[in-house]
Amino acid sequence: MNEAPAVLDRDGLSDLVRVLVTDGRTVVGPTVRDGAVVLSELTSADALPYGWGVELEAGRYRLVPREDGAAFAHSAGPQSWKNFLHPSRELLWSAHRTPEGEVSFTAHEPGAPSYAFLGVRPCDLRAIAIQDRVLSGGRYEDGGYGRRRRRALLIAAECTEPGATCFCVSTGGGPAADPGYDLALTEVVDEDGHRFLVRVGSEEGARLLKQLPHRPADTVTEAAARGAVDAARERMGRSLPPVDLRALMGSSLDAERWNDVAERCLTCGNCTMVCPTCFCTTTEEVTDLTGDHTERWQRWDSCFDLDFSYLHGGSVRRSARSRYRQWLTHKLSTWHDQFGTSGCVGCGRCIAWCPAGIDITEEVAALENEHGTESD
What we know:
Layout: E1 6-9, H1 10-22, E2 26-33, E3 36-41, E4 52-57, E5 60-65, H2 82-85, E6 89-97, E7 103-107, E8 115-120, H3 122-136, H4 143-150, E9 153-157, E10 183-190, E11 193-200, H5 203-210, E12 215-216, H6 219-233, H7 245-250, H8 257-262, H9 270-274, E13 281-287, E14 293-300, E15 310-311, E16 314-315, H10 320-339, H11 349-352, H12 360-375
Parallel strand pairs: 2-8, 8-9, 9-10
Antiparallel strand pairs: 1-11, 1-12, 2-3, 4-5, 6-7, 6-14, 10-11, 13-14, 15-16
């Protein structure tokens, strides 16, 4: 899009939410609840986490107040947009047997909500693009995902405050929004006020901006916005080693480090649940007491589940070592073979929300160190 950047003030952000709700969209964005910044339906911009930031470390997440009143100066919380586009549990079809013994099947294809995602981080914007390739870019589309995704409007919020567990730059991304958004906001809070630089990424975004009170972007706001994003790029809390990760993971299958991490890993699957790109599912069937009605549900699954690799006779990956190795090597290496990219966007959720405090960047660095030692 060749639309010139614009500026919204804080009241303009309120108008944005109001217009989206009036248009019949389900607005989802960050808000404070239960001691965390979570994603939830918003009916007003007043629910945004103005004045809240977060402190992150391995296995640790804490809300902290901010004096500047910023709305998007916080790192990723426990949820991602996967929770809405690829929900944890979804009905696929049902079957019913009549008293005469006839059985009918009904596919469950409800109308998809018209989502407007407000405050999509650049790492999550890349994660959505990855899930697009995985779930709707191949020969067999996940129909539910496709319906929801096609109706979703994405309003990105560029990152100006990376957390201690963020490492998006070392995964090939960064705090700036890649193409794929409808609108991109960059928050600026300085002596000239609280405002948002707005860039248009689609025709729908342009149509939306025209309905909002805005002004052309001035050079001061543009410079402040770009400066804040550039500064964030230099303040990543963590990084992956600057090596060929595909080759490293492929040559580290017998590394001693896997035994070390297996002693700490609880195989709880938290990392896969909070990961914005993990997509694995299984199906389960439930029936009523009469046996005349049954339903097939799709639900999230995890490669840390003992039954995930079950074949006739037992599970293939019985140990924590083999299951953690499968997760990490798939994420950073064999994902390339399947989908053409890495499966990691550097959001750091798997670090912050691991109850054992296992750090993916630390584990990869240890594998790289062990591999280098063996090479010597």
